[in-house]
Amino acid sequence: MSVLVTSRPLDEYCGLFGLTRAELGAVPGPVLDCPGGAAGLVAEARTLGCRAIAADPGYAVPPRELAARARAGREVMAAAIAADPARHLPRHLRAERYLRSWDRARRLFAADAAAHPERYVAAALPQLPFADGTFALTLSSYLLFAYPDLFEPRQQLAALLELVRVTDPAGEVRIHPLHDGTGTRYPWLDELRAELGRRQVASEVRRYGRPTGHRVLVLRAADHRRRAARTGAGAPGLSAGREPRDPARTGPRRGDRPAR
Asked: Is pLDDT at 231 greater than 50 in this prediction?
């Protein structure tokens, strides 16, 4: 089994992760999309004033090649929608419109990655080349729980801990979905959350969207409440802390662990 390369647009990310464009634009620091695939998030979020970075092992190949893989992924999604639209198609969209949004996002990715390659970092979990606390918000979609045959529980734990490491303690990591491609829920979520708690990572499962909502795993370093209390309120939906460093800056900040 291989990971499907997708090209989801910004509005789909917002729906998946319970964000609005205004909230995303107000995030008080860089945003990480991991894995980024051929999504339009980085390019579109930058137009909102959001400093977004994507990480994905696929960025080791030229953008046009990855975009071609995403085109193949689009055809896989089109077939899945035709076979089971209730599972794969957002309720408020027709299939043609939804797939066109993927086409647009794929073109935005290819153009932005070619023009600004520094925004697209070739890296794979569980080792990311960013210093501790770099990002104010980290989003991870359709990977860790979507492909249980590729990620055993120990690998999932290591990946989640790495996402928390690179996220500011006052920020959040949001992961979706919590099920595989057949819709089967991840069976070891309670055990995984308990182990995260033992590693000083707070977790909760939130529901976003209507009518019943979909589940998103939200992670924070366990000391975030003390930091937030000292620094006051931040962007909508996020606690505030010190402004995380811009990943484009060079050199570690005092107290940072060396990037891996």
From this structure: no
